[in-house]
Design goal:
By secondary structure, this protein is α/β, with parallel strands linked by helices. It contains 16 helices and 20 strands. Helix 6 links the parallel strand 7 and strand 8.
């Protein structure tokens, strides 16, 4: 299919390596340009042995004067870079690996989700429902698995009609040409990535690329509560059939009588849901609509939703002990993420906060002190966090284990213990995953 086509791959992060593997399978002629020096690239010798041209240690001007059939760009490389603009000015297509994989794979049922917040939980819900319903499905994109890898693993060059669930960042949507999801949703729009995008308007507009190739045979799932999103749908009209969802008013998917309904069908009672926060009810609504429109029964959808405890390390329910519920939000490595977690609960929590000291400003975090019943600060940042939070009920302990045991000692029936550290973990752990796993292990042995 691509035999003899000359392809430039820019950047060798996970998505770049996945693209190279797919291009090798398709017998393309590959040039790789990676900014890192040769001695920092583990796959350098392997690639050279396979006939790949390797240009490392920078982005030489002469490379971008050469003729390529197309370019596969790492999403993290800013598209305003002069060498990217030069390629586009010369009419050379620049894609991300999702667009590459889409163009070479057989036709699939694509479910594509974007938005500023909530993407990973939403696609994880969709994937779990489809998997539990015994659909052939794969989960890829910004969630951490390149779609090119899925195409190879599931042989989607030959197999069609899989349910392909894609979490898509605006970086991945910027270089869309033919990508055409059958079902698409923008969860919400709030300011982000202004270090990368030229303007907030450009960031918001990039999200609408998710539905630009849809037609009247496709479905767009529309959040009618988000006024910014409504404004952009007016500016960039949707051609697909729309299904609406709302936490506040009448919609195709809505809250009624303490339950979520879709097309007047009862799906699940709110008190059956184990993940917390209104934002997660919204995420569930998208999952319900996406999977029902993909052929899953309401009963199967209900059963998966009722058992879903969340994405690991993201406000993840761990255990209830003596009437006290413990939640793992180790993924909260900044104050914005911790504020989202605090707002997810309808009562003040015992908050475990601390870790690596990276000089975070806690001013905004302190405005949520009324969401914190008791603050337990731990790790390298413990003293500074305790001082800057100004919470009247604060304990200072050495490490995460001591914080958990202090919470266990002071918690009473109906309390909530939340690990939401607000900073990274490198004073004590290799990353937030290890921190979260240790938290769960200790809680499960209390």
């Amino acid at each position: 299919m691509l035999s003899g086509k000359k392809v430039l791959v820019l950047g060798l992060a996970r998505s770049g390596q996945a693209a190279v593997n797919l291009l090798l399978k398709l017998h393309a002629t590959i040039t790789v340009n990676e900014f890192a020096p040769k001695n920092k690239i583990a796959c350098y010798d392997d690639y050279v042995s396979k006939g790949i041209e390797m240009i490392t240690g920078g982005h030489p001007d002469e490379l971008f004067e050469r003729d390529f059939d197309f370019v596969v760009k790492n999403p993290g490389i800013n598209y305003h870079k002069p060498f990217i603009l030069r390629l586009k000015e010369r009419g050379i297509p620049v894609y991300t690996e999702i667009e590459l994989a889409y163009q070479v794979a057989k036709m699939q049922n694509y479910i594509a989700i974007t938005g500023t917040n909530g993407k990973t939980t939403t696609v994880s819900l969709i994937y779990q429902i489809l998997k539990d319903a015994c659909h052939h499905t794969c989960l890829a994109g910004n969630v951490g698995i390149p779609y090119s890898s899925c195409v190879l693993m599931d042989d989607l060059l030959e197999n069609g009609n899989y349910d392909v669930v894609l979490e898509m960042s605006n970086f991945q949507l910027l270089d869309i040409e033919k990508f055409h999801p059958h079902i698409a949703a923008i969860i919400n729009l709030t300011p982000d990535h202004l270090d990368y995008m030229a303007s907030l308007d450009e960031y918001y507009a990039s999200k609408t690329n998710i539905y630009m190739n849809q037609n009247e045979n496709d479905y767009y799932l529309e959040n009618i509560d988000d006024l910014t999103l409504q404004e952009y749908i007016q500016k960039y009209p949707v051609k697909a059939k729309r299904y609406t969802f709302s936490l506040k008013t009448n919609a195709d998917c809505m809250i009624k009588d303490g339950a979520i309904y879709f097309l007047n069908q009862h799906v699940i009672d709110i008190d059956e849901i184990k993940i917390v926060g209104k934002h997660n009810i919204q995420n569930m609504m998208i999952a319900i609509m996406s999977t029902y429109l993909s052929g899953v029964s309401i009963k199967q959808i209900h059963d998966t939703l009722a058992s879903f405890t969340g994405v690991e390390h993201r406000i993840e329910f761990v255990k209830e002990i003596n009437g006290v519920k413990y939640y793992n939000d180790s993924k909260a490595t900044n104050t914005d993420a911790s504020i989202i977690a605090l707002k997810a609960f309808d009562k003040p929590v015992i908050l475990l906060m601390g870790g690596y000291e990276k000089g975070l400003d806690l001013t905004e975090m302190t405005t949520y002190n009324d969401h914190i019943q008791t603050l337990i600060c731990f790790g390298e940042a413990k003293d500074r966090f305790a001082k800057d939070m100004h919470h009247k009920n604060t304990y200072i302990v050495d490490n995460l284990a001591a914080a958990i045991h202090k919470a266990y000692d002071i918690a009473k029936k109906d309390d909530i213990v939340l690990l939401s550290p607000s900073t990274s973990s490198f004073d004590e752990f290799s990353g937030y995953e290890q921190r979260g796993s240790v938290f769960k292990d200790i809680v499960n042995h209390l």
